[in-house]
Amino acid sequence: MTEHITALHATVNHVLGLADFFLYERWEGPWFEKDTWEKLMKGTRITLTMLGALLLIYEVRARRLRERIPERFRRRIAYVLTGLAFLVYFDFFNPNVRYDQYYHRHEFYHYYLGSKYSKELGYLRLYECTMIAEAELGRAASVHKRELRDLRVDLIKPVDATYVFSDPGQCKNHFTPDRWEAFKKDIDWFYHSAAGSYWEGMQKDHGYNPPPVWTMTGKFFGSFGPAGDTYFKILACIDILFHIGAVVMFGWAFGWRAMAVATVFWGCNAPANFYWTGGAFLRQDWIFLLIASLCLLRKRKFFMGGFALTWSMLLRIFPGLFIIGIALIMGIQLLETIRKKKPKRLVDYIHPDHRRFIVGCAVCLGIFVPASMVFTEGVQAYKDFYEHTLKTHQRTPLTNTMGLETMLEHDWKGRMRFTRDDNLDDPFQTWKADRLQRFQDRKIIFFGINLFVLAWTAWALRRTKLLWVGLALSTPMVMSLTNVTCYYYSFCMVLGALILARRQLGPPLLVASGVSQIILYAPNGYYWVDDRYNAQSYLFYTLGLIVLFVYSRPFSISRLKAWWDGKPEPKHKLKVFVSEPPKAAAAESPG
User: How far apart are the first and last CA of the chain?
Assistant: First the structure.
């Protein structure tokens, strides 16, 4: 067995060595330097989105003029755009602009260590245990001078104001001697791999936050070896496979056009770019499963669609909100069933397709929730997750969150530019408190807008039987109800599926992705981080409303009454006012 493992390790090292040669040895010259290449990639992203939008408009225009464009040619263009967008997300794997050796050390520090030592660290002890391990490794003098975030109160404090030196047993008592030594070795590797301000800044982040189901998965993959370059490269490649899988599934379920639109949007958008979670450890599992659910519903595999959506929710919680549109479709169809007929059995009130979807959701919960309790701390793991991640983070504004809440909290005087105070232990303490207060003051507006968007979504879905449309059209509600960090806005990929029903949605989706690049970076964008992502929130929220507007017909009482009565809805024609009577105008017409 040992010989097989040694041979496998040698093979992996050989493959990675070849990859290093092709990816790292051929990127020399002024064009490939960081500043130049980043500008080139930014221009490429903007060009791809605008070119894609223009091609979609040209395709529609050609059809209206009865000009034939061969499908093979259009399909090839779509494949080229898909490939370019996929590569541009990774900056064509140029090592000069990506993380050293590709993988993201900051992400691995939190997600690899947080899952591997989940029973010992919980959700609160990662930073203190790191400092204690460093002190035992001979760096106590350096540790005394540092600061860390106390995750119990979510404030940055000097190390000497915590239990690191006064009571290290609060950490070590959770470890066995062997596990503590393994943890120290991993910490020592991270220190030497990312020494300096980068390493010290890691302990000022917001800790380890995934739900227990993700912890179970992360622990499985993270327990095969100690921290190291080769191992982390392998783990980082899992997310690349998730990205490839999402693109392929889009093509399988929705065709080459939707695949190209979704991929160009994802590959070129600014909020969810590679910087945040690229080269990380299992950070794209949720989006793969969300896309998988969308595609499976399109292919009428309702059980698997419900299973995939629930799994995505168990990994990141907020994807569960994509069930809103599906629930609206189910509720409307249930209402129609009650009004039109009275089934003999209670179960017959629910459409068979809907039953399969619900069973898929239930089976997923029945498998993963108990399993995660076995591999973590049981029910306590869920209690700790709620207290630390859901409850605490709800009271902790971040600079890069996006959503309706961010839009309501942000105002001119409360910007980070004016409220940041470096004399405080946490320079953003006043900024956070002010944002929380503003949200409380404007909460009635928040609920009012959410009710309006929910009603609009229900109106848009009133005649739709397709569950995949309900999932995709839930996107505006997700933007309204959540205040997630910017990199989760890759979920807007699901909007690409809607071009199957409304072809005209393609250009706005791609233009929004390109504009997000334009407004994000200085000098032509916003310098302060809170300003950047407030602007992005307005951009993407507007996109969500455009989607609702394009998909739904204008509201009218006559349409509502016709739908309620089960009759065809009247088609309201636009009135055209002309200076001459219609007959005279028609007589002079050259047609």
Answer: 83
State both tokens at 3.
Answer: 């010989």
Report d(CA 109, CA 190) in Å as an integer: 7
Distance CA 144, CA 135 (A): 9
pLDDT band at 581 (very low <50, low <70, confident <90, very high): very low
Are the CB atoms for 350 and 338 separated by under 8 Å? no
170, 171, 176, 179: CA torsion to nearest 10: 180
**pLDDT score recorded for residue 273:** 93
Q: What residues pair up with 155 in beta bridges, in sequence order?
A: 150
Say how far apart CA 152 and CA 487 lie, in whole Å: 25
Instruction: Work out the pLDDT band at 449, boundaries 50, 70, 90.
Output: very high
Distance CA 464, CA 473 (A): 11
Decide: 309 and 471 in contact? Cβ < 8 Å.
yes
pLDDT at position 96:
87
Q: How far apart are CA 375 and CA 219, in angstroms?
A: 8
pLDDT of residue 524: 58
DSSP-assigned letters across all residues of 100-146 = TTBS-HHHHHHHHHHHHTHHHHTTT-HHHHHHHHHIIIIIHHHHHT-
In this predicted structure, the answer to whether residue 292 has a pLDDT above a threshold of 90 is yes
Q: Cis peptide leading into 523, omega within 30 of 0? A: yes
Positive or negative torsion for Cα 198, 200, 202, 206: negative
Nearest to 352 by CA among 467, 199, 494: 467
Kindly report the number of other CB atoms within 10 A of residue 208's CB atom. Answer: 26
pTM score of the predicted model:
0.90
State the DSSP code for 169: H
Domain ranges of the chain: 2-93, 105-227, 253-551
Helix/strand/coil for 246: helix
* DSSP secondary structure letters along 327-359: HHHHHHHHHHHHHH---SSGGGGS-HHHHHHHH
Angstrom distance (rounded) from CA 389 to CA 269: 27
Instruction: Name residue, tokens 């979504």.
Output: 457
Pairing outcome for strands 155-158 and 147-150: antiparallel
The residue to which tokens 């929910």 are assigned: 454
CB neighbour class for 166 (10 Å; exposed up to 12, middle 13-18, buried from 19):
exposed
